């Protein structure tokens, strides 16, 4: 006979958080012990640990395609369930809001909005390959004078940015119905077209989605406090503690030196190699090497070594500007704090905002102008974001949650304005508290 099931309260479960030796989480009222499993979790040990001591039903639903398959791996981890008198999620969460969002999720599935148009992604890949070939032909035909050289650099920078958005689609499993197909092509796009490892992206980016703008859980905030003071709350906390790693009251100025131009060429360029070598991920390293071999061999027929290295640095700088402005415009101006264990909808809306839709904005940002919809439904194909927008706005209006959407240039300006504001808050706290 099976042993009698164990029943738990939320007070018991929350003591098994990511800071405890043992880690538990809840999915659909079932309690799982992930103390050992988190190190073998395919999505990374940290992303699942971020929900230790909490209800993980909504992120579990959001991130996994074949939930029945995943549940077979969860069975050995099952240790019990919530007691009958316990709510299905933490008592501090809004019951009606959580249930409304889960109903919205069911509606989205019934509408087929999680199904992709393969032709859309094929055309996206073809336009990237066309730009890549055009960049080489431009120098081959027009020569290596300044103007053709700069045009080729701009074309290659565009290739890198657009390939970045496309690998993002495959990384989120939003193209094919089977995870392994997405993983295979993800390695090709991010490895061969960009020279970066898929394993690094998975490790980094899924944490961001699981707990966006949550300090010590979202790795996109790792620049705080070493380089920048981010968010109103964290900046004041830093000032009160009299910590000063940088002159944060000037961070809105030095952001233009340490942010957009420097992130990719002077940090990520070497860090991704360190990441794969440290973790001995030789498959990702092999894919990365094919990118560098292809680039340097094909352009060595047209450029001397100095010009070749200059072209590579210039395309990385263009890519870096593009990447930083687009990825930060949706998050840096929003609320940044420690994890408050909010419900899925409230957490994502507090940490994200949109940029108004247009054909250019959709292309330029890889549809990340629909950041709210993307964060709520990370496996949704990007060509369907606009279809779910009215439903998301409706649930936000019903529950009094602010849904922000801005013009593109306003969103860029808000990055700088938010850095200036948080820098001043730090200075005031540093001097007077």
UniProtKB/TrEMBL annotation:
Any one Gene Ontology molecular-function term assigned to this protein's record: oxidoreductase activity, acting on paired donors, with oxidation of a pair of donors resulting in the reduction of molecular oxygen to two molecules of water
GO annotation (BP), single: unsaturated fatty acid biosynthetic process
The keyword Membrane is annotated on this UniProt entry: yes
KW Metal-binding (keyword) present: no
Pathway terms, separated by semicolons: Lipid metabolism; polyunsaturated fatty acid biosynthesis
InterPro entries cross-referenced by the UniProt entry: Cyt_B5-like_heme/steroid-bd (IPR001199), Cyt_B5-like_heme/steroid_sf (IPR036400), FA_desaturase_dom (IPR005804), Fatty_acid_desaturase (IPR012171)
SUPFAM superfamilies listed in its UniProt record: Cytochrome b5-like heme/steroid binding domain
Record keywords: Fatty acid biosynthesis, Fatty acid metabolism, Lipid biosynthesis, Lipid metabolism, Membrane, Transmembrane, Transmembrane helix
GO cellular component terms listed in the entry, alphabetical order: membrane
Transmembrane residue ranges: 119-140, 146-166, 254-276, 296-315
Annotated ranges, domain Cytochrome b5 heme-binding: 5-83
PANTHER family assigned to the protein according to its UniProt record, in alphabetical order: ACYL-COA (8-3)-DESATURASE, FATTY ACID DESATURASE 2
Name recorded for this polypeptide: Cytochrome b5 heme-binding domain-containing protein
């Amino acid at each position: 006979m099976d042993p009698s099931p164990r029943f738990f309260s939320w007070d018991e479960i929350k003591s098994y958080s990511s800071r405890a030796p043992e880690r538990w989480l809840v999915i659909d009222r079932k309690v799982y012990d992930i103390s050992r499993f988190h190190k073998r979790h395919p999505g990374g040990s940290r992303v699942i640990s971020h929900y230790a001591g909490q209800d993980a039903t909504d992120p579990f639903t959001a991130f996994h395609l074949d939930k029945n398959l995943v549940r077979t791996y969860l069975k050995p981890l099952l240790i019990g369930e919530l007691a009958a008198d316990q709510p299905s999620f933490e008592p501090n969460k809004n019951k009606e809001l959580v249930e409304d969002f889960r109903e919205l999720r069911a509606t989205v599935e019934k509408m087929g909005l999680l199904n992709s148009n393969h032709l859309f992604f094929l055309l996206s890949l073809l336009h990237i390959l066309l730009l890549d070939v055009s960049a080489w032909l431009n120098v081959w035909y027009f020569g290596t004078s300044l103007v053709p050289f700069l045009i080729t650099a701009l074309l290659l920078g565009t290739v890198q940015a657009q390939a970045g958005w496309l690998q993002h689609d495959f990384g989120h499993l939003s193209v094919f119905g089977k995870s392994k197909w997405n993983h295979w092509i993800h390695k090709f796009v991010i490895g061969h077209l960009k020279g970066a490892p898929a394993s690094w992206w998975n490790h980094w980016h899924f944490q961001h989605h699981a707990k966006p703008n949550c300090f010590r859980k979202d790795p996109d905030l790792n620049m705080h406090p070493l380089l920048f003071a981010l968010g109103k709350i964290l900046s004041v906390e830093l000032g009160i503690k009299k910590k000063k790693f940088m002159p944060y009251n000037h961070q809105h100025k030095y952001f233009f030196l340490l942010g957009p131009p420097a992130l990719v060429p002077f940090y990520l360029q070497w860090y991704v190699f360190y990441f794969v070598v440290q973790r001995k991920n030789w498959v990702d390293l092999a894919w990365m090497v094919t990118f560098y071999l292809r680039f340097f061999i094909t352009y060595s027929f047209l450029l001397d070594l100095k010009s070749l290295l200059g072209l590579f640095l210039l395309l990385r700088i263009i890519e870096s500007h593009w990447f930083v402005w687009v990825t930060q415009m949706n998050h840096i101006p929003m609320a940044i704090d420690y994890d408050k264990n909010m419900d899925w909808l409230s957490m994502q809306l507090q940490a994200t905002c949109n940029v108004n839709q247009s054909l250019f904005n959709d292309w330029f940002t890889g549809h990340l102008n629909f950041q709210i919809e993307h964060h709520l439904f990370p496996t949704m194909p990007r060509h369907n974001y606009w279809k779910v927008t009215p439903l998301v706005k409706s649930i936000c209006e019903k529950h009094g949650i602010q849904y922000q959407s801005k013009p593109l240039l306003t969103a860029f300006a808000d990055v700088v304005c938010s850095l200036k504001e948080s820098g001043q808050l730090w200075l005031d706290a540093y001097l007077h508290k």
